[in-house]
Amino acid sequence: MVTAEPDPRITRTRQRAMASVLQLLAEGGFDGLSMEGIAQRSGVAKSTIYRHWNTLPQLVLDAFASINPTPPAVVSTGSLRDDLHAFLTQLAAGVTTGPWASLMAPLVAAAERDEQFRALIHDFVESRRRHLSNLFQAAIDRGDLPPDSDPDLLAGLIGGNLFYRRLISREPIDDKLIAQLTEVLIPRRQRHA
User: Fold this and answer.
1) Domain ends where: 59, 82, 101?
2) Cut 0.85: pTM above it
């Protein structure tokens, strides 16, 4: 069976509509978002948008999916300190300057009201927590952390701090913070040694 290549005009139309959603969300959040506004911003007819998406939430979910970056790679250098620093540097960049940075707050607000958005943000955060937890589990397996360490708790402490700063306190997420978090978790003199 031969599958036809997607029509490039349809692909461009969909991309324009989804890009407009993301721009409008970054500018004003969900409250003012409408199919009419998306049509006006994108230059795509509202009827065309409805042919591709039956509802506004479906369109928004597809727009978010189009920019869902993969979680930072877990780099295994053999040094927990170096691995953690590399991972946190990538994660910090993702939540401060990546495609999701300006959309996180509106998405969290929408997640309070809508199950689909709640699932979307859960998947986004969970995939990053899982990567970080795996990094800590590898360190426990190597003997870099005490064997009774809880990798999920450690991942939550680190990830929670970054997301708290990004969404609530608006404190800087920079190299200084990454160094401080690394030092709290992995003091230069390991206590279990």
Assistant:
1) 59
2) no
